[in-house]
Design goal:
- The chain is an alpha/beta fold.
- It has one domain: TIM Barrel (Alpha-Beta Barrel), CATH 3.20.20.70.
- The chain is built from 11 helices and 8 strands.
- Strands 7-6-5-4-3-2-1-8 form an 8-stranded parallel beta sheet.
- Helix 2 packs antiparallel against helix 11 and helix 7 crosses helix 8.
- The longest helix is centred in the last third of the chain and has 18 residues.
Amino acid sequence: MNITRSLSPVIDQVGVEERIARLQTRSIKTASKVFALKLALSMIDLTTLSGDDTPGKVRQLCAKARHLHNRLPGLPQVAAVCVYAPFVGIAKQQLAGSDIKVASVATAFPSGQSTLQVKLDETRFAVGEGADEVDMVISRGEFLRGNYHYVFDEIQSIKEACGTAHLKVILETGELSTLDNIRLASDIAMHAGADFIKTSTGKIQPAATLPVTLVMLEAIRDFYYATGRKIGMKPAGGISNAKLALQYLVVLRETLGEQWLTKDYFRFGASSLANDLLMQIVKQETGVYQSMDYFSKD
């Protein structure tokens, strides 16, 4: 595939920001709010990606994923639990019998600074341990120096190493600097075989933003029109409250339509978001807020 800047359209940054400003004024009426809050909850990849992660911490996170709020019936389960590759086997065991997927970061997350062989070995290890999904990071240095074919080939190789596991490609948009770069990186990732495109590792600021997400969603829309293939989207990093999560759902619906309003095609990379969504659901259904003491800390 011949990859040049002409692969992607030039982005009108002012137009993107104006559209986001308009969409942020949209409100979700009370009758639909509980549905939207539960939908957002079902889209969460409950995540722990810290240097001090332990087997016990991963087990605790899996327990939370399975038991978000036992006193509140009718809650959906989160979409996935996301961990480092050495903890995939533990998470898989803890989540057995549920519909919750196990996701693993790979490819020298979060920097991506390693050899292709190391990245392939880590990906195969995670899948061999039972990962249903792999979240890889692109080589931003290669992208920024214009080596787009390197980025394409690397993603394609990781996709092959994933086998039947889904591949989420993290662009680390905070390091790509411009919306034009973000659009081009999105297009490269999708053409190379990504099942999802994802904004961020959560380790770099800025992480997910609504304008960046809109640009990536428009790339998904155009790719779908051109190929008929539906790609998922995962904003990650900095989405910690229900109000902001619902704004993301509004942008999603207005850009891609209702068929993308499912955990199969949209995820939130978050942990603290789950508690705020639970608080808002309790408020909508009972009329009162519960103390944060009623919710487990991540």
